Amino acid sequence: MSKIAARAQRPPAAPLPAIGFAIAVAAAATLAGAWFFELFLGLEPCPLCLDQRVPYYAAIPLGIVIGLLALDPERTRIARVGFALLGLILLTGAAYGVYHAGVEWGFWQGPAACAGGAPVRTDDILSTLKGTQRVVSCSDAAWRFLGISLAGYNVLIAGALSLVAFAAASGRIGRA
Fold this sequence. Notes:
The protein has 176 residues and is mainly α. The chain has one domain: Bromodomain-like (Up-down Bundle), CATH 1.20.1550. Helices cover 63% and strands 5% of the residues. The strands form 2 sheets. A two-stranded antiparallel ribbon has the order 1-2. Strands 3-4 form a two-stranded antiparallel sheet.
């Protein structure tokens, strides 16, 4: 098969800006899902759950900025460097998820802040007036689907998004 025939069978590559915007949308959807479980289903996040959201908070504006940069063909190189940074940020999010899932499965001990059940007093006067706050345990998965906890799904989502970002950074996907 000739190279021309092989290219004809392959779907066209997505434009580089669309990849940046898609990663931002996927990160926002992931946060929306976390907030849905928290606000509508009443699943209180543990400290590690909250930490796992931080890379998504960074990925949303960074994905948008990268998408905007990639609109200008002269800034493709800068956009690809941005995708590499975005990939590292999302890989960090996946690593948080691996750590948290390991705590849930009892492979290793979680941080002391995740002890769970221990009352914590704060210096905040409103919290003091309300009494103590209960820290949610990081070792108890609040929800599982197909045997995978929310931390496990975070590994899958952040890991997949980091692979897309790294592929865009390397030029394997996305056209300028």
